[in-house]
Design goal:
Elements (H helix, E strand, L loop, with lengths): L8 H7 L5 H20 L9 H27 L3 H23 L9 H17 L7 H32 L1 H9 L4 H14 L3 H9 L7 H8 L4 H31 L12 H9 L2
Length: about 280
Amino acid sequence: MPAPPARSLAADAQVLLPANLTLGAVLAVLLAVAVTVVACAHLSDDGSRGRGRSVAVAGLRAAVQLAAVSLLIGWVVRSGWLLLAFLALMYAVAVRTAGRRITPNATWWWAALPIGVGVFPVVAALLLTGLVPADGIALVPVTGILIGGALTATVLGGRRALDELATRHGEVEAGMALGLIDRDARLEVARPAASDALLPGLDQTRTVGLVTLPGAFVGMLLGGASPLLAGVVQLFVLVALLAVQAVAVAAVLELVARGRLHREEGEEGEEGQAFRDQGP
């Protein structure tokens, strides 16, 4: 009697986290745990419980947005114009999110520059070389990953740089008194702090395969791809993210040093201000 055929990885994918009531209940419990821990431990910039609410809102927004994207993505990729509009929407949302996290004043829109100069050249190179086909099924997820990486690096780099300048304003003035121009004096103070924005990407790349198996790798395996192909794709994603994030951090640091992206006295990013308004 022949042995039953081994179940394929693609079949495994169909039973991984089945979309049913049990999954919904587990997700609700996990989100509640996250909110409770963040609130009870006062894990926020000012020691309040405001970030617990932010965690809850983020989880609910993720559910709604992913549901909407799941319904729309098959329709969007059939039209070139709709595809471009969808990519533009992704970029616009990333710019506003990053900009408002960094500063509440009108200079937030400068966040468009570090995200754009990091992502657009990489996507253009991938399209021109044929490594990524110009269709929605491939272009949307690749561009989304790169925009997400640039968003994170821009937020971390911009916030750290501006926070450092506010804390060490006297050192900036001392540098200017010694003959440094405004830009150079700000760079000397802000550069070390802003460069910390590269650490998450560096740690993820250094530990891939040893500590974590990122989403692209696992997704391709579950989709039936060979481990070698999955590894190659994941390596491409990680290296592309390193390039995008390096450019984004360098660009946002330059904007801060030149005073294009700034805060007025007493200002802080949208997130921090919301926490203080909510109170303990």
